[in-house]
Amino acid sequence: MPLPGGTIAIMQPTYLPWIGYFAMIDRVDEFVFLDSVQFEHRSWQQRNRIKTASGPAWINVPAQIKGNRDTLISDIQIADREKFLQKNIGAIRHSYEKAPFFKEHGEPLFTLLETASVKGIGPLNIALITWLCGVFGIVTPLLQSSGLGASGKKATLLADICRTRGSKDYLSAPGSKDYIDASDDFDKAGIAVHYHVYDHPVYPQLYPPFEPYMSAIDLLFNCGPDSLKILRSGVSS
Predict the structure, then answer these.
(1) Which residues contact 67 (CB under 8 A, 6 or more apart)?
(2) Per-residue DSSP letters for 3-24?
(3) Which among 141, 140, 170 has a CA at the least distance from the CA of 155?
(4) pLDDT in tens, 157-211
(5) Among 92, 112, 105, which Cα is nearest to 135's?
(6) Helical packing angle, 81-96 and 102-116, nearest 10°
(7) Is the peptide bond before 56 cis (omega within 30 degrees of 0)?
(8) Rounded distance, CA 73 to CA 154, Å?
(9) What is the pTM of this model?
(10) With bands split at pLDDT 50, 70 and 90, how would you rate the model's confidence at 70?
(11) How far apart are CA 186 and CA 170, in angstroms?
(12) CA 98 to CA 83: how far, in whole Å?
């Protein structure tokens, strides 16, 4: 569904996120990675799911947590990077090597995992999401909150990011509704809040029955050039 011009969305950079994340990026005029907040251990920031012959399975990015409990997403490092690469690349290859578009996109993904993981989890996630946007054909400009100079927490921070970008329309994930509704920051700033409602589409997938909410690489490896059309089909409001 079309949104007003100048609409912005703001989300934490998560690890190989699901297709609804990309549908959200596709709907707005600017997308901001919220990388200037505290890293959350055992969150989507460091894990996601892929479809295997035995069903959904987790892939994880181990974080260097000891002594770094208050570290920002932009600064958190990967623990045992070589083991992470071996396990994740191996799991993805084993699960998708028979998918129609794995040969085209598998090796570029693995190369990016190897090069971008040197910089830490936040930069890795941003690099992976940026690459997937390019492969899908999503052209929305991508920014990082760590470079915008906005301040505050939760709704206050989100509204201030919108203010710094001159946006009067904010597209939010439904999960943020409670704390946005409890705040008057958006009302004070004259910013209209919209919510990203997404109905997960069904697409051709290895190992039936169909499993929704997998990492977006599941759609890419299975559907290739049809991926953008499919992920857009889930947008309802």
Answers:
(1) none
(2) --TTEEEEE---SS-BHHHHHH
(3) 170
(4) 999 999 999 999 999 999 888 889 899 999 999 999 999 999 999 999 999 999 9
(5) 105
(6) 170
(7) no
(8) 15
(9) 0.95
(10) confident
(11) 9
(12) 24
Look at the block and give the residue holding tokens 């909150």.
145
Tokens of 89: 């690349």
Identity of the amino acid at 183:
S
Q: How many CB atoms lie within 10 A of CB 181?
A: 11
CA distance 110 to 123: 15
- Residues 6 or more apart whose CB falls under 8 angstroms from that of 105 comprise 135, 217, 220, 221, 224
pLDDT in tens, 85-142: 999 999 999 999 999 999 999 999 999 999 999 999 999 999 999 999 999 999 999 9
**Residue 142, CA distances (Å) to 25, 83, 101 in order:** 9, 30, 26
Q: In what order do the strands lie in the sheet with 30-33?
A: 142-144, 30-33, 7-11, 169-172, 192-195
DSSP string, the chain: ----TTEEEEE---SS-BHHHHHHHHHSSEEEE--SSB--TTSTTSEEEEEETTEEEEEE--B--TT-TT-BTTTPPBSSHHHHHHHHHHHHHHHHTTSTTHHHHHHHHHHHHHHHGGG-HHHHHHHHHHHHHHHHT----EEEGGGTT---SHHHHHHHHHHHHT-SEEEE-GGGHHHHHT--HHHHHT-EEEE--B-PPP---SSSSP--S-BHHHHHHHHGGGHHHHHHTTB--
Tell me which amino acid residue 205 is.
Q
